[in-house]
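Hi, here's the filled form for the chain we discussed.

Project: internal
Contact: R.S.
Residues: 299
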Amino acid sequence: MKTNFFSLMLLLFAIILFASSCIKTDNNATDNITDPNNSSSANLIIQFKFDSNQTRLNNVGLPSSLPNNHAAQSPTFNGISAHYIELAPSAFTFLGEGALLYQGPETTAGGNKAVNFDEALVVAEGETFLSLPIKDLTPGTYEHIRVSLSYQNYDIQLKALGFTVTGTLASFIGYNTYINDHTINTNNLSVNGNRLQGYWAFESPYGVIEGQAPEGATTVPNPLFASSPIPQGSCVVTGSFGTPLQITGTETEDINLTLSLSTNNSFEWINSDGNSTFDPLDGDIVVDMGIRGLIPLID
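And the returned structure, exactly as it came back:
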């Protein structure tokens, strides 16, 4: 009886040892485990914000007031698109020499190379425009960011035939854009060709009209103009980080980057009749539809 008891205990002990030897104890054996703190899961997430109270800047990044005989309003944005985004380590980093984050689709369908609007991503405020793994970015310290804006869609107020109404403006501010067709608000407009910076289409209760802003009339703030200028017509807006952005490539948490755009009186016209309302039927002429500044905000 005693022999059987000890035999049973030895058998049980052997089973326990065998079972223990089959359990993985290698701390590096994580092939089938997703580590939520692994840097591969951390992303740089970019979105846009529209701020009508942000400082209104001119082309060289200085505060700007309205010229005499001009008027302006801060539009209500519906959507925006960008064609190019890069990080710049310093004020002496020329356009194209920074860390590229995004390059939008281009085409020669209309002749010269142009932004392909058919494939452009248009987003609303707070909507993700770009999300990319931080581990794929070039490690470094970045003081500035450059964003080539290509399209904006917003509502403005105008006065015509004695009524104040809301109209929607589709404004193409990229260097050159190939447009098959596009929807302003409810109306779809066929273009089937290239349009240079400053092409716009406007929809109101009175119908749809198109136009082209004068060359060089679109404001593109660049506070680094003295050390790293940008080509005219590119609509590359430059913004500076309050605290330089550090990228190591080993980040374990997402970096949320908000591109805060100044819409402070960004829709500007020649105020022909001397009042403060936009009256296109009374001779008011649009002269500027450019963004009035960029502040990158890190969360």
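Let me know if anything looks off before we file it.
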